[in-house]
Amino acid sequence: MRGKIIGLAFILCLCIVSVFGSAFAATFLVDSSAIQNRIFSDEVAEYTLTIKNQQQFGDRYTIASSDPSWRLVYDGDVVSVGGLQSVPVTVHLTPTQLVQDGKVYSIPVTIKSLQTNDQVDVKLEVILDSASVRQYKPSIAVTAVAGDNNKIDPTRPVDIVLRFMNKNPLDIKNLQVKVSSQFFTDEFTTVLAPSDDFSKIISVHMNPQVPPQKFNIDVELVADNISLGLVDRQEAEIISAEPGFTRDVKTDINTFLYREYVVELTNPGNVQSKETVQMQSSLWQRLFTKSDFPVTYDKEDGKYYANFAVTIGAGAGVEFSVVQNYKPFAYTTGALVLLILVGTVLYFTFRSSIIVTRKVQVVAGDEDGASRMKVVLNIKNRTGAMLENVKVIERTPNITEVDKQFIVGTLKPTKIVQNAVKGTLVRWDFTALEPFEERIITYNVNSKLAILGTVDLPPTLVKYDRSGQTRVASQADHNENDFI
After folding, report:
1. Which domains does the chain have, with CATH numbers?
2. For a designed S-S bond to 458, which of 11, 150, 223, 395 qualifies (C-beta 3.0 to 4.6 A apart)?
């Protein structure tokens, strides 16, 4: 009897060693990451599976799923991975008619070695959104061509041809276009019909003295208040331009604290020549004398002179000028004080009278994500003026709903409007905000589905009247990174 017990114990030990030895000697590992796992039923989910071969020799692997509701596709029939190497594989999951909208699916996927028959099982999660809440996002292609095939003569107006292509059926009523570079900026607003394709020409002006160089022309778009950012960047080149010289009469301006000597010098010969222009100058005047030409000083008969060397090409001319300006020295302090005063006045004139900040805190949820959030709005009048007819407007995404039960002492909204596509609009009204008064608004948001990752909240808008004019302040002006 004792012998049988010892034999059974020995067999059990062998099994344990075999199991754990197999676990520690895994021939390959698999990491998974989602590229696009939130889709509609007519779209395809996309993931990256990274197969890490732990063996000294190469191996081949297959990827398959036992779920008949999804079609799994990847490039090729097998994946080859060298010894001690890793290979990323892009896997696509296409939903069939067996799936239902508005659900979250966890799809089993098996990666199997053809060399050792070992296998690794992973689960890929897909969120299948309901088609009833689907919205098209603006998708616009733009190409810009400046001047003659992006060759620009800076001495002439520059025509820029912009071609717009609406790539989906979205009817864009307000398309804001900004064309900019380091040398010019132009903005305009237009409309873009569904699947429309049209061109528009704008004309810009450049500094004719800009030297030849290459630069970028950027086109940015805002479609119905949705920023699409930079949609096109073209490299343009400023070419050499020779519009010809002008001829002016010599002048000598001598006023209080300022003297300017100007003369047009022309070389009538056919070879390059060098001439010297001489002006009387004292040691004190040297400190305030400026010219575009090299200068040397000498003394003759007890007087000091400034000598300017000017080189002129054959048949060419040049405008020579010398400026003796004492005004900057006398007026610098006054100009700085004036600049500070003007800047202060402009800042307090054009800044927003209201500061809007928002904080979002998850108050309920589990490992699958957040399900309840608390939103706190801080509305502050930062001016000494009375602000009237204040309206605070919040929008929440359509996958959330605003909790209509408010804590005692919390300001209740004036209006709550729900829309299946645009989400929920919540509005609070104040008769007035006293100077430097601050209001705090708190409300809760419940999610229809557990939220994984982030959900952007549209900026909070505050409309108010000041001095008989209606103005708008935005939370995005003060806190652009606030999101759930």
Report:
1. 25-131 (2.60.120.570), 140-238 (2.60.40.10), 251-328 (2.60.40), 354-477 (2.60.40.290)
2. 395
